[in-house]
């Protein structure tokens, strides 16, 4: 009996796989950051990232994880006692709530259950009832449930009310179409280890003129993330030099692929995964599933924790379980960043293997066949 070697496949919604060329780029000599040589690389990284964001707004690269950019957003637009409309349908919406609390904002919550989504109408109602609110905090893709929000529609009602909108695009950006300038988004944040095909360690944040105007009247209580310092010098502290080499290359790769194709690729991977999951007799968890990841209900009688741990520890395939109250109830398969059709097939076939082992009846190839037929039909 032959035993397989274990190869590692990272199919979780962050960190995501990093292309070898990008890994190697990080191995280049670390240079001093106050040099014309580094300045050029930094500007390339900023300009490329702006194109991915579809913005001409100021964009800053932070040496932090994505949450640092969320903190910078809140810290610079709200004074203690001012009102924020915070939208939440999962763990990352709750992070906005915690941040708003941390900076002393009065919070108006637009909240729905995990798996559900909020709509432009719900946000409009909150705006009507709270004309003194200064901004609305939203999430493009709620990673804990795999749910995507209609940010374009929500932004329309926020702009009509003359307020600021901030979007957590940490997992959503790259995988989902997002047009910062065309949609009038005041603050957009993202992070390196999700769609950008980079290792963890960087966050990105863009500010519109209106957001910058508002920040001037905010006595920011953050030192590291104080926007005024970044406006004076976009590199206020030592940047993550080698990660920025990598970022410069990764955004170049995305732009060479073309954002329209990047979005279409994710859409197709998302569609193939969802259809395959349904064909396997499983149920989707999200009411508005997106193309970042697919969240799946753990079938009756199966131990959800075991699905994830056996796949990872024995098969080498890392997907994600549920977070918080979702633990054991759902699992999440990412199709995000440096992934392609065969990554989807690996996730589906290893899922079939573990489900069979845990007593769930599914024929080998059920999901893979449906996914391959969809890829073929779409010419992938
Ligand atoms: C991953 C993620 C975060 C947190 O990012 P960190 O890099 O872990 O700080 C926040 N929001 C969303 C939607 C995410 O997917």
From TrEMBL:
Aminotransferase class V domain segment(s): 29-325
Organism lineage string: Bacteria, Thermotogati, Thermotogota, Thermotogae, Kosmotogales
Residue positions, PTM N6-(pyridoxal phosphate)lysine: 194
Source superkingdom: Bacteria
Protein name: Serine-pyruvate aminotransferase/archaeal aspartate aminotransferase
Needed cofactors: pyridoxal 5'-phosphate
Pfam families reported for this sequence: Aminotran_5
Residues involved in substrate binding: 332
Family that this chain belongs to: Belongs to the class-V pyridoxal-phosphate-dependent aminotransferase family.
Organism: Mesotoga prima MesG1.Ag.4.2
């Amino acid at each position: 009996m032959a035993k397989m070697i274990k190869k590692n496949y990272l199919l979780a919604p962050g960190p995501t796989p990093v292309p070898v060329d990008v890994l190697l780029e990080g191995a280049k000599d670390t240079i001093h950051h106050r040099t014309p040589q580094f300045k050029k690389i930094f500007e390339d990284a900023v300009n490329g990232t702006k194109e991915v964001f579809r913005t001409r707004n100021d964009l800053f690269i932070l040496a932090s994880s994505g949450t640092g950019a969320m903190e910078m957003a809140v810290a610079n637009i709200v004074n203690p006692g001012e009102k924020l409309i915070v939208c939440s349908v999962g763990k990352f919406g709750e992070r906005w709530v915690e941040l708003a609390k941390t900076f002393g904002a009065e919070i108006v919550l637009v909240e729905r259950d995990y798996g559900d989504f909020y709509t432009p109408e719900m946000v409009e109602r909150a705006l009507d009832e709270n004309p003194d609110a200064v901004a609305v905090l939203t999430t493009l893709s709620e990673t804990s449930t795999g749910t995507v929000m209609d940010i374009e529609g929500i932004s329309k009602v926020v702009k009509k009310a003359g307020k600021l909108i901030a979007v957590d695009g940490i997992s959503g950006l790259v995988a989902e179409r997002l047009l910062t300038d065309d949609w009038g988004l005041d603050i957009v944040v993202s992070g390196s280890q999700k769609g950008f095909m980079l290792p963890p360690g960087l966050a990105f944040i863009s500010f519109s003129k209106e957001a910058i105007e508002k920040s001037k009247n905010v006595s920011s209580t953050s030192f590291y993330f104080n926007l005024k310092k970044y406006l004076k010098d976009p590199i206020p502290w030592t940047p993550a030099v080698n990660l920025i080499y990598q970022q410069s290359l990764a955004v170049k790769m995305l732009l060479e692929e073309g954002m329209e194709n990047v979005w279409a690729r994710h859409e197709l991977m998302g569609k193939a995964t969802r259809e395959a999951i349904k064909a396997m007799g499983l149920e989707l968890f999200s009411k508005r599933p997106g193309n970042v990841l697919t969240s799946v209900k753990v079938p009756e009688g199966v131990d959800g924790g075991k699905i994830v741990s056996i796949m990872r520890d024995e098969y080498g395939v890392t997907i994600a379980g549920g977070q918080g109250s979702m633990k054991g109830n759902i699992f999440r398969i990412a199709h995000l960043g440096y992934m392609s059709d065969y990554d989807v097939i690996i996730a589906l076939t290893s899922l079939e293997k573990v489900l069979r082992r845990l007593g769930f009846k599914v024929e080998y190839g059920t999901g893979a066949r449906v996914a391959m037929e969809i890829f073929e039909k779409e010419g992938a």
